[in-house]
Amino acid sequence: MTLTGRKPTLAAIARLTGVSTPTVSKVVNGREDVAAETRAKVLAALEEAGYESPAHRRTTRRTAVVEVAFDAINSNYASALLDGILAQAAAMGVEVVLSVTGSVPAAGIDLERRAQRTVDEERSGIIVVTSAFTGSHLAAFHRRRVPVVVIDPLNPPPSDVVSVGATNWAGGKAAAEHLLDLGHRRIAYLGGPESAECSQARLHGYFSALMSRGVEVDPRLVRHGRFRVEDGVEGLTGLLALDERPTAIFAGSDAIAVGVLREARQRRIHVPEELSLVGFDGTALAEDSVPALTSVAQPLHDMGRTALRTLLRQARGEQLDSHRVELATQLVVRESTAPAPA
Amino acid sequence: MTLTGRKPTLAAIARLTGVSTPTVSKVVNGREDVAAETRAKVLAALEEAGYESPAHRRTTRRTAVVEVAFDAINSNYASALLDGILAQAAAMGVEVVLSVTGSVPAAGIDLERRAQRTVDEERSGIIVVTSAFTGSHLAAFHRRRVPVVVIDPLNPPPSDVVSVGATNWAGGKAAAEHLLDLGHRRIAYLGGPESAECSQARLHGYFSALMSRGVEVDPRLVRHGRFRVEDGVEGLTGLLALDERPTAIFAGSDAIAVGVLREARQRRIHVPEELSLVGFDGTALAEDSVPALTSVAQPLHDMGRTALRTLLRQARGEQLDSHRVELATQLVVRESTAPAPA
DNA sequence: TGTCCCTAGCGAAATTCTTTCGAAAGTCAG
DNA sequence: CTGACTTTCGAAAGAATTTCGCTAGGGACA
């Protein structure tokens, strides 16, 4: 059975599915008193018939709205991404609803409500940034067909989630190679969360560089943190406790590198004479620190722009070329790296 | 004639005004084919009866939404404020629509549309942060009865606009007094835009401190910029060109101070031995710079929270105690200030 | 096992709102 | 004055929603 042309009405859908008109109305309006099975059947028919409620037709938004969820925004990394997202949003006439999740995201039930709200308010989708959203959290959005784009996921996302990032592996490799070229052999890595894909990729780029030069990887030289200044402080402290100290450190973020610098200054360790240091991100932090940080710059602004563009493309139902977009990183050499001490 | 209790329906309004139900429906939905006179009559009756369309009832927002407009967000100052706004928003279950205006705000016509949208979308109001919104821009919102709260206005706002800030005058006084206590007499001020109230207040706090100690104010030692790092660089360059150089600088923001530090390092001028430096804001920038900046800390996080709270109070129609809220600043002494060279 | 009561799920009927379409009244050129 | 057009409105039909009561399937309990 199928519809005989015409714009679909509730009554038509009702006939099609063998329920009453009121029941269809209830499904459309999200009432509770409809069995899950019946709801599913009706929703399928609605979908197939392309039904649009008159309220929906009326409300048709003049300006699209997207949601953006950050773990935290008090970092140059977050500011730069946000700046890119907002710039693109302004260019495309889209509004941005911003929220911070904190490292512990809302409980499941809350998350469900939030995802539902995104649907109710007819928002185009959500951009999730280095947030502790797990796969199951993302599923709440996925179930409701809400487009999601993740920037630098902290937890490995389901394979079908669209993500935007940088060439972290290549960046890690470039950083390590730069240090190797300067004659360093004991090179430590102070990274972000072990589960974070971006940090993982940087680590493996670093591994790759070491191995291709025949330098053995010492697991004691690899430490994980949370990309914060304090992690750099603690990281350096830990590394100095080793029998054989590293002569160079590759930090997984500029913030970590700043922490290393702070602790090094405290201990009267001269950078770069006694210790070379490479950061990651290429934010203003790298430029303003003393000494200025050699850092692997990520195109954070462009990543933000790309994320928004991708999200809207997804929302429009366009087929995406790839579920993963990586923008190029670039090693910027400043003053914090020097030849290894003899 | 009046309504006999009950929730008002279109039919009731129609009887009341002596037109047909369809005509009332058309007025409610803003159709064109209704005479202006009839429309006015019906609207009046709708207003009086307190009619709400079912669509409207449905749409009645569960969560309030506020708009936040920043000049730019790529600064620690902006991040900290935003963080506070978002924290309070999360606590109160309010959503935040964020946008950046850029230093040149949208043209008048666009601004009008934007203000209208705030009304259409039934948003609670707007928080404007150090933005180049002028009085006439704010008027667009004011005309529509949209609550506005301004944080650190760049242009003097109309007197009836609610604003949140810090005790800038006291902060400027404290900074200058600290330097005077260290024996400095030639103290420069590198501030923000001349029209910015917050910068003005800091400057006058500085004047006050100097004058109460009987130190003459040298107008050549006062320079204005835009709170950016570059303004610090240029500011110091300009000051060094003077016959008699200052021995201390009071910077209107930490970013300016960082610029001063950068230029000083470039020129091999030692801070604080040869030049003392006080910043303003007390952001992470102050803590991480070398030497760590003595700075007047603003409670940016709390200012953000207060702004949102105030806005919502205004939106609820509560009477505000004051059109101006100032939170206390605090001088934090670190390493960038020392006794004046002999 | 039977009885009672409760609840979830559904639809008939009534109510409310919207749209279509044609009629009445006004306007204007010729 | 006439005919063509426009504006404004409402009758009637159509669409969507709400109310309210029915029914069936489950416990709880004697």
Automatic annotation (TrEMBL), chains A, B:
Highest taxon, organism lineage: Bacteria
UniProt keyword terms in alphabetical order: DNA-binding, Transcription, Transcription regulation
Annotated GO MF terms: DNA-binding transcription factor activity; transcription cis-regulatory region binding
Family matches, as SMART domains: HTH_LACI
The keyword Cell membrane appears for this protein: no
SUPFAM superfamilies: lambda repressor-like DNA-binding domains (SSF47413), Periplasmic binding protein-like I (SSF53822)
Occurrences of domain HTH lacI-type (ranges): 8-62
Chain ranges passing through the membrane: none
Protein name: LacI family transcriptional regulator
